[in-house]
């Protein structure tokens, strides 16, 4: 119990600034990952994930992440990867200045491409706890696509071209975790800032890894996403996520 009290205290400190908001949605995040250790320093991984929005009712995104990581020394790790995402873009209604309907674009799916590179530094706090800071740069590209939208004046469908768009983001994550060998549960808490010419969103996460064996593990978590300075077309609201993931090492 002493372990969980210490982690709870740290979590309270990390989430002191957590805002309360009524305009938010609930979603589910699920993932499955396989990791292959090439040698003591180098490993590769493949992860598939999905998430929902709209209070768990709408599929939001599927993704496939191919990554590689390398331990530079005992306290510093580098990693990089590519992510293929299939995003469910929300519907959009445009209004005239009079307030009447102008056009309606239904929701649609669209592929996106992302590359990233990270450095993670860790610091042991005593024998059982670990503090980690990760700095990650990511670049996401949305190709040009043509969708259909309904014109209320003409009462007909028309083509709507969305131009390609590139986005650079720096993600800074600070976390505390329980790091004792052979422990069944490894609780953790972290806070992550998305910076793209200003703070775009902040993620607060608390959860635990469940170490079933040397090869198999689960993770379960709660995450609150505080959206800030987000473009309306990106539809990135405040979110409450429940997450569960599986990892296999070989």
Please, could you describe this protein's structure?
- The chain is mainly beta.
- 5% of the residues lie in helices and 68% in strands.
- The protein has one helix at 2-14; strands spanning 24-37, 42-53, 58-71, 76-89, 92-95, 101-105, 108-125, 129-142, 145-151, 156-162, 165-178, 185-195, 199-211, 216-227, 238-249.
- The strands form two sheets. Strands 1-2-3-4-7-8-11-12-13-14-15 form an eleven-stranded mixed β-barrel. Strands 5-6-9-10 form a four-stranded antiparallel β-sheet, with no helix packed on it.
- Mean pLDDT is 90; it is low at 3-22.
**Mean pLDDT over the full residue set:** 90
The tally of beta strands, per DSSP, is 15
Q: What is the CA–CA distance across the termini?
A: 32 Å
Shape type: elongated
Give the strand order, joined by hyphens, for the main sheet.
1-2-3-4-7-8-11-12-13-14-15
Radius of gyration, in Å, reads: 21 Å
Provide a short characterization of the protein structure.
By secondary structure, the protein is mostly beta strands. The protein has one helix at 2-14, and strands spanning 24-37, 42-53, 58-71, 76-89, 92-95, 101-105, 108-125, 129-142, 145-151, 156-162, 165-178, 185-195, 199-211, 216-227, 238-249.
Secondary-structure topology with pairs:
Elements: H1 2-14, E1 24-37, E2 42-53, E3 58-71, E4 76-89, E5 92-95, E6 101-105, E7 108-125, E8 129-142, E9 145-151, E10 156-162, E11 165-178, E12 185-195, E13 199-211, E14 216-227, E15 238-249
Parallel strand pairs: 1-15
Antiparallel strand pairs: 1-2, 2-3, 3-4, 4-7, 5-6, 6-9, 7-8, 8-11, 9-10, 11-12, 12-13, 13-14, 14-15
